[in-house]
Amino acid sequence: MAELARSARTETFPRMRLMEYGTIAEDLRSFMEQPPYCHIFSRPARTKAIFDSLQQVEFVHPLLDIYGYFKAHDPYTYRHILTVFALSRLLAQDFFDDRNELSRELAAASNHDFGKICVPLGVHKRSTPLSEHERMQLSHHAAAGYVLLSYYLMDPNHPAAITARDHHERCDGSGYPRGIALQNRVVEIVAVSDMFDALISPRPYRPHSYDLRTAMEELTVLAHKGAVSADVVRALIGCNRKNQPHYTECTLSHEQRGTPPPDNLYLGAIPCSYESDGNPDGDPKA
């Protein structure tokens, strides 16, 4: 995989700011006005700082065109990529002091699921359990995204390529595709944001989304197990509270009162093997 990602690229492509491509800026603002994001992004100063930062993110046109593809053919993935991008940028403010470093590193979040362009649309939109072959196709998106971004960014160590490859890895080594113990703060932030948005959003295979309490309890359980960063989950909890305290003022409760939605195929985020419900790693469609 690494050798393929290092393949030489001779073409040159024009670059453009992400927020100036198509209707991305308008669409992102619309997504941020929907619950629960309307509360998470309720502080005007913080929201403005996020958009000011996002305005500096730019990519070559072939990568930008992937946004257009998802908007036209897979609106869920389009929305998911943008909301995870904004949420990751918000959570990262608690962990990075250098704004330039923050903008550079978190640009990676905007491409975390680009490998899904290699997955047949029929797999994305299935409302019934996937076959074993389809599960393997879907879980391949992490490796595919790494190769795709490494090629167009001409750097297999670029934060965007690393994030695409590793956002389904877990801190305890229970994730995929490599089963490594995740130790990259940026990817930890994207991983938690990715799971959170997957839980609270409608999915083709789940007619009802998780309510906010149950989604936070799912992530808290994973943090207690050591699968995801406890600090990042605490930061997410802080963003969902009324006064939005710093993550150091938040605790992880062991109490569980939420109820997963009916007709739910989600089994949890960290089983190592493929489960019969069609979701490797609990929810590879995230």
From TrEMBL:
Alphabetical list of InterPro entries matching this protein: HD/PDEase_dom (IPR003607), HD_GYP_dom (IPR037522)
Pfam families: HD_5 (PF13487)
Start and end residues of each HD-GYP domain: 55-249
Designated name of the protein: HD domain-containing protein
Organism per entry: Geomobilimonas luticola
Lineage: Bacteria, Pseudomonadati, Thermodesulfobacteriota, Desulfuromonadia, Geobacterales
